[in-house]
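fyi for ur records
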Amino acid sequence: MSGKLLESVPIWLAFVLTVALVLLSIHGGVSYGRFRKKRWGKDTEGAVSTGVGASLGLLAFILAFTFGLTASRFDARKALLLDEVNAIETAYLRAGLVPEPHRSAVRELLRQYVDIRVELTRNPERIEEAIRRSEALQGQIWSHAMELPELEFKNAPLAALFVNSLNEMFDFQTKRVTIGLFYRIPAVMWLVLFSLTVFSMFGIGYLFGMSDKVNWLLVVVFSLAFSLVILLIADLDRSGGGKPGIIKISTRPITDLQQRIK
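which gave:
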């Protein structure tokens, strides 16, 4: 199962499928446990419990590790948003150092640059188009910088300040795209996670099957709780990649910047 296939599944459907997978795994374990109990009698409870406990411990470790990866990436995206906003505003202010007509042209291009980001917050599925438009604007902004002879500035340090602010702004664009689109949980890790889920839930069901009675209400509640954790990880992983999610980063910094530079 590839990462692209996982991303193509809506988040609500991923939750439903996870619940179904957990319930089916537990049900399969219950059925097999009852079959073995009827045919050969009860297994040694201690040995079975130890094996199930070990698989659950390993599953918990993988869940914690995976959640840590997605949470750190989410934090990085928040920090990069603030950094990019600061870099754009700095470039906008330093554009005031350049002579006309470049000053007005660069500032207008920067306004369009910010507008693209604000539009993206409303239509995250158009991220590929937003990237192309941003890169085109970067080329236009840089062409203005290349047309400015150093002597037209008041002094060389001011020229360096303006060019450096543009470089930083472009760098943050690249970082946000890379972390948002390409730094994802590998498909093999999802495969391991769901494989351990099936084995562990089957083991829990097997223990239930060996007992005299199965509390299906407890099974359903457990399945929902476990699936919510998977949902949280999946939502954090796909956020920022052009897919509407449940957990979102506040877009207030970029909308405030749009108002300031109008």
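Residues 60 and 197 are 10 Å apart (CA to CA). thats all i got for now
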